[in-house]
Amino acid sequence: MKQIAVLSGKGGTGKTTIAASFAILTKNTIVADCDVDAPDLHMLLHPEIIKTQKFKGAKLAVIDEEKCTKCGLCSEKCRFNAITEDIKVDSISCEGCGVCTIVCPVNAVTLTEQISGNAYISKTKHGFMAHAMLNPGGANSGKLVTLVRQNAKILAEKEDSDLIIIDGSPGIGCPVIASVTGVDAGLVVAEPTMSGIHDLKRALQLLTHFNVTPFVCVNMHDINRDNADKIASFCRENSIEAVGKIPFNPVVTEAMVNGKSIVEYAPESDVAKEITKMWKKILSGLKYEGG
């Protein structure tokens, strides 16, 4: 089984557009939207939810008022100031660290698991999809990403699929680490700007750390050809395969407004043709012969 993650140094680079296109171009594949904080792959693939799982990702301190003697030790020792002077728990500030349960002399404080979001298994017209939504302010997005990937793997085994396409979170934080751990390849989508080059290098360092085969795609390369050339030179110097140079085309926005991927909405466009060519290069680089 091959797993391919599509990443970017920041949001808005075209990562989800490309991931959705890959899913449509490939037969018998499983798609995982691992951007659980702000998922948007569903806007292009229109999944029909067939299973929902409650995700308990955080713990919250709860004070038993009958046992509590109002000694104030919990409030004094809480470094997050999550317990007020009148010994009430501020659910927004509480990090579930458990110090209050240790210092309470009468065992009046306990930690309870909180529902932080939902994970979903869905069916699209292109195949099955695993995705999730973290509640606003919810904790442990990395754990929720791990659950999404576990669901995707179970789906792949059940559906006899040997390919999982992962739409990762932007950046290099915890949910991205959870998205790329153990995958076979990572495609970093970069913009031809100075900040885009900086973000690209950080994402590639992350892939190198986890021993993931890197590929690079420059989106809207023709808005700044000099910077696009700098990215190409950097890739050559570091033996990284630059598999695609996607041109700017307003038809991509039209496709998104219509809730479709570019390969569906305008298959003969220069963007769709470049994405198709890029996808074939990635599959060839991974020696994948399916789909």
Describe the structure.
With 291 residues, this protein is α/β, with parallel strands linked by helices. It folds into two domains: 2-54 and 125-285, P-loop containing nucleotide triphosphate hydrolases (Rossmann fold, 3-Layer(aba) Sandwich); 65-107, Alpha-Beta Plaits. It contains eleven helices and nine strands. The chain has helices at 15-25, 42-45, 73-77, 99-103, 141-158, 174-180, 194-209, 225-237, 251-257, 262-265, 270-285, and strands at 2-8, 30-33, 48-63, 109-124, 127-134, 163-170, 185-190, 213-219, 241-246. The two termini are 13 Å apart. The mean pLDDT is 94.
Quickly list its features.
single chain, alpha/beta, Rossmann fold, nine-stranded mixed beta sheet, 9 strands, 27% strand, elongated
Task: Furnish the topology, listing elements before pairings.
Elements: E1 2-8, H1 15-25, E2 30-33, H2 42-45, E3 48-63, H3 73-77, H4 99-103, E4 109-124, E5 127-134, H5 141-158, E6 163-170, H6 174-180, E7 185-190, H7 194-209, E8 213-219, H8 225-237, E9 241-246, H9 251-257, H10 262-265, H11 270-285
Parallel strand pairs: 1-6, 1-7, 2-5, 2-6, 7-8, 8-9
Antiparallel strand pairs: 3-4, 4-5
